[in-house]
Amino acid sequence: MTSLAHAATWDSATALLAGTPSVLDPAGDRAETIEQVWWILFAISAVVFAVVAFLVLLAVARRSGRPLRGPEARDPLWARVLVLVGGVAFPAVVLVGLFALTVDTLPAVSAPAEEGELTVEVEGMQWFWDVRYPEEGIVTANEIHIPVGTPVEVRVTTGDVIHSFWVPQLNRKIDLVPGKVNSIVLEADRPGVYRGQCAEFCGVQHANMAFFVIAEPRDEFEAWAGRMARPPGEPADEDAERGRDVFLEYGCGGCHTIEGTEADGELGPDLTHLGDRRTIAAGTIPNTRGWLAGWVLDPQHVKPGNRMPGIDIPGEEFQALLDYLESLE
Amino acid sequence: MSILSPAPSARRTVEKLERVWAEPGGLHELATTVSHKTIGKRYLVTGFAFFLAGGIQALIMRLQLATPRNDVVGPETFDQLFSMHGITMIFLFITPVLSGGFGNYFVPLLIGARDMAFPRLNALSYWIFLLSGIFMYSSFWGLQAPNAGWFNYVPLASEEFNPGPGIDFYLLGLLFLTISTTAGAVNFIVTIFKLRAPGMSINRLPLFCWSILVVSFAIVFAFPALSAANILLWLERTFDWRFFDPTGGGDPLLWQHLFWIFGHPDVYIIFIPAAGIISSVIPVFSQRPIVGYTWVALATVAIGIIGFGVWVHHMFAVGLPQISMAFFAAASLVIAIPSGIQIFAWVATVLGGRPVLTTSMLYALGFVVVFVVGGLTGVMFAVVPFDQQVTDSYFVVAHFHYVLFGGAVFPVFAGLYFWLPKITGRLLSEPIGKVSFWTFFVGFNLAFFPMHVSGLLGMPRRVYTYPTELGWDVYNLLSTIGAFLLALGILLTLANVVRCVRVGPPAGPDPWRGDTLEWATSSPPPEYNYPVIPTVRSPHPNWDEASLAEDRARLERGELTLADGHLTPASTVVEGDLDEVLEMPSESPWPLVLAVSLGVAFGGLLLEFWAMAVIGGIMTTAALVAWHSPGAQEQEEAQA
User: For strand A143-147 and strand A210-216, is the pairing parallel, antiparallel, or unpaired?
Assistant: First the structure.
């Protein structure tokens, strides 16, 4: 635990994140289809619930008269009709309708993207998301940039256990299953930052395995992609250069990759463009110097049980390391 | 009532039965009894103890989730808490209480039998249940409890990602427990098919017995899938046989299929007997026979069967072909029809009856209201795109608590207020009961309704914490407040039960004017249940004055009193005609010895201390031989 980790509170940690990842606030056609399905289901349910609750209250309200105990049941006609209509006829009609709705909407949320559209490969790991754009040669983590109005195919795999990729405002979820490549299409119809989170229990830090989909106009997306496709230049100043040496000296490269250096580890997120990202530790804390410092010194305090060990680095070297990490734009 | 008949011949019969069925008393009785009523009471008490343990786990989780970034417990503890909460409530509380507790105590009474078909097997079931529960709970020592959820998905539960003993406690503990569940189910099937009082044809079988019959068949077919999954994973973890590892030719989805082929029917294994309680309670307090008896019985059977065809709706997000998902969507929708029949039959019964709002009836009506909510959200999951959106979110947590807590714990409480006077011979307090109900009802809805909202707002399940400013805070706080209110409601009933047992006023044989046979005998019933095997001429024998008079007359004549030994009649499966008279076994130490031997064997497997496992195996074999040796049986018969 460090003073730096205490410098900011959890509240400020989340202030910069995206808004509520609500199923009822869709930002794309697919999520909108599901939202419409929900309102249909809700309306039917509300009616059925109201009818049953009304009948129960009615039954309780009019309770008087001679008991009808006897050896044999004589069901009045209205009672038999109620059971047949309420229990069989009405559900049968509604259920056929719901099956039609299912068959009608299922392809819409599951259909693959057209050939030639943008493809992103996402690999889930305990507990972060490795993000690659194979055509564009981009590698990053926990943030997926997409152009607005373009269907983007996300191919999901796992590097360890089962995870589930879920951005409620853009589409349904899809599981990441060992030995399987699944895919899902994301398409945003308006710019914004949409929060996603792992939805399948994947171990102690399942709760802190978030990511963000950043939908931006095509020109902004292309500018971003251009920036990301280039490896970062040589460190700008002496401090940052010293920082790079510290990074390599302390073995950080055993788990992390930084393009253009000897660091080529694959256990942790790629840091080549760390400065581009809004958060660290998979959406857990903001990517600011103070939080970054606290994270490097004591990652187990922020995200107990995660795979990164804390490293005790003397002050001056540590500041240089932070300079270097911040310079990785 | 019939048993208080003053005729001297009847008194002699009763005295004789008292002698024949007398329990030995003391420690001897504790270890050897095979009485279905004692075993039923043990199931109820043990099951409720686990209910309280699982409830405490839930309250700790709700405290942790009351506010964002809370630190009541850390993630490792939280994962063990939610895993053990699920395991406890599903395996150690609800099925043991419903089938083991109410089933054991009341099925023989409801069908006019003097015990279960295999009383010693019944004792074995209880001892194994108790020991396997202790086995699994011992994992809390050193916080080594299972931590991959009650669904225990691989590869998270594999040796590589979960090397600790927690998962082995889960696998071996459930394998051990399944012996008990399966033995219990077989026992119920034979009991209900063969031990019904003469005249109780299958179309006069009380609906609670119908539900236990259906559930027992479901258990016999569903649990082998769970056991297979557990054995395969245990072999994979212990000997590296890779059934679920794709790098070794296995498939992690195999676990999910096996688990849910068991797991979804298990939802109905939980719900069906609960519905059976409702079908018993509602007609009595509506003061009329249930509407559509045949429909309700057939709906119960239909649910038991269709429940086996819907498991894939737990796997809609794993990336299956659309055609398979459409098939399972259809099956999942169809099951709403038999559930709908039951609900409208209950509603029609109350509507057409003269309802009396006792506490038991309040819990039953509360059940109808909340179960409809859970049933409706259940239908939503059949609509695949919606399922894929909200599965593994808090919406699912809300749904299955409406179905399992609303659909099973409400009925358990309805059953408790209904039947406890029969078990203890004393009445519960109605005022305390009513306060308890309203606290319970409001607390339940406050705890679980907001979870629908937090799920729709994108909150995933099984998270030990969550960030603020995502709009989830207020719903979580409401859930926590509701959970504590619900706990208060449960404590009020617990206090009511303690008061009932200690100072409750006498209940008399039939405090509610019930329609079924259990109300025809004293409260609590004598060891032999009925001094004369009852006559059954309708589905509502206790509302049939002619057949009650006939019972009294037969007791005086000494006809079908079967007082010359441990005897109960057997009848034909469908018609319920008298078939033969069965000699029932009496006390035996071997069920306990066998259960302990199995416990030693499973302990050895857990510790990978193979010598101990082998010794346990030898002890088990020896106990089985001793149990079944003809010499021992002859000796007992000579004693009798």
Answer: parallel
The rounded distance, in Å, linking the Cα atoms of B97 and B95 is 5
Asked if A174 has any chain B CB less than 8 Å from its own CB, the reply is yes
Residue ranges of E strands in B463-542: none
CA distance B128 to A128: 43
What tokens appear for B96 in the block? 């043991």
Give dist(CA B178, CA B229) in Å, integer.
Answer: 12
Spatial contact of A122 and A131, defined as CB atoms under 8 Å apart? yes
pLDDT of residue A18: 77
Which residue pairs from B363-366 have beta carbons closer than 8 angstroms and sit at least 24 positions apart in sequence?
Answer: B363/B281, B363/B410, B363/B411, B363/B413, B363/B414, B363/B417, B363/B437, B363/B440, B364/B277, B364/B278, B364/B281, B364/B282, B364/B285, B364/B410, B364/B411, B364/B414, B365/A56, B365/A60, B366/B410, B366/B437, B366/B440, B366/B441
Residues A310 and B149: their CA atoms lie apart, in Å, by 29
Rounded CA-CA distance A168/A186 in Å is: 10
**Torsion, CA A36, CA A42, CA A48, CA A53, rounded to 10:** -160
Q: How far is CA B583 from CA A256, B147, B627, in A?
A: 75, 48, 17
- Tell me how far apart the alpha carbons of residues B587 and B34 are, in angstroms, rounded to a whole number: 6
Instruction: Give the per-residue pLDDT at A280.
Output: 93
Nearest CA in chain B to A184: B319
Backbone angles phi, psi at B551, to 5 degrees: -60, -45
Residue B269's identity, in one-letter code, is I
0.90 surpassed by complex ipTM? yes
Instruction: State how far the alpha carbon of B110 is from the alpha carbons of A52, B105, B149, B208, B558, in Å.
Output: 30, 9, 38, 9, 22
Asked whether the beta carbons of residue B468 and residue A87 sit closer than 8 angstroms, the reply is: no
- Cβ contacts of residue A109 below 8 Å, gap of 6+? A30, A33, A34, A171, A172, B385, B388
The span from the CA of A62 to the CA of B331, in Å, is 38
* 8 A C-beta contact, residue B284 and residue B513: yes
Reduce the DSSP state of residue A269 to 3 states and report it: coil
Q: Residue by residue, what is the 3-state secondary structure of B580-614?
A: EEEECCCCCCHHHHHHHHHHHHHHHHHHCCHHHHH
Helix%, strand%, coil% for chain B, nearest 5:
70, 0, 25
pLDDT (tens digit per residue) in B479-513: 999 999 999 999 999 999 999 999 999 999 999 99
Q: Which amino acid is residue B235, in one-letter code?
A: L
Residue A127: is the preceding peptide bond cis (ω within 30°)?
Answer: yes
Across-strand partners of A131? A122, A140
Sign of the C-alpha dihedral, residues B86, B92, B96, B306? positive
Chain B touched by A53 (CB under 8 Å): yes
Does A142 contact chain B (CB < 8 Å)? no
CA–CA gap between residue B2 and residue B532 (Å, rounded): 9
Q: Which two tokens stand for residue B227?
A: 């056991």
Q: What is the pLDDT of residues B509-535, one digit of tens each?
A: 999 999 999 999 999 999 999 999 998
Q: What are phi and psi of B141, to 5 degrees?
A: -65, 115
Phi-psi group of B152: left, alpha or beta (phi > 0 → left; psi -120 to 50 → alpha; rest → beta): left
Query: Percent helix, strand, coil in chain A (nearest 5)?
Result: 40, 20, 40
pTM above 0.80, yes or no: yes
d(CA B337, CA B343): 10
Query: Which of A17, A91, A110 faces B467 most closely, judged by CB atoms?
Result: A17
Nearest Cα to B423, choosing from B36, B14, B23?
B36
Q: In chain A, which residues have their Cβ closer than 8 Å to the Cβ of B510?
A: none
Percentage of chain A modeled with pLDDT above 90: 80
Q: Which of B251, B384, B449 to mutate to test the interface with A (most CBs of A within 10 A)?
A: B384
Report the relative pairing of strands A119-125 and A192-197 from DSSP bridges: unpaired
